[in-house]
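step: validate -> pass
step: tokenize input -> pass
step: predict -> running
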Amino acid sequence: MVTGYDHIWFLFGVIFFLYRMKHIGIYVSLFALGQSTTMLLGVYFNVGINSYIDAIIGLSVVYKALDNMGAFQRWLGFQPNTKVATPVFGFFHGFGLSTKIIEYNISPDGLVLNLLAFNVDVEIGQLTGLGAILIVMGYWRRTRSFWRHAYTANVIMMTAGFLLIGYQLTGLFVAA
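step: predict -> pass
step: emit ->
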């Protein structure tokens, strides 16, 4: 939660093959809408799940890498709707945040304002990380090596997703 690297990995996958700022804005907004909704409502209504729900966040990174590599098209014969998948995974990312926030037993005094401020901070952090990624990706996409290494980059992203899943599931079983 402190670094948000898991959220950044997912957003990296989401924007990997998006070239127009309009499309990037749409997908990042869909993710932010899903994440913000469940984070705010989850904390406000004290709906927490097991804090190891973050394993699903790792799964979202794996999903996006597979999507970028065309695996679903080959395996299933169709492309899942990415405009549906992005906010759905955003919901899970938001539940991960809300569950961790609930664990802090925050005072209900000024809760809504504090949650909104926290959410804005999270979104600014994600946009900052995303901005840095877009700058690097912009330069990388102009090189001949981009298409040669795009598959490998997504394999690395998928591996990171599996590591996130393993990390969370290990914590779940060790804590039990």
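step: describe -> The mean pLDDT is 90.
step: cleanup -> pass
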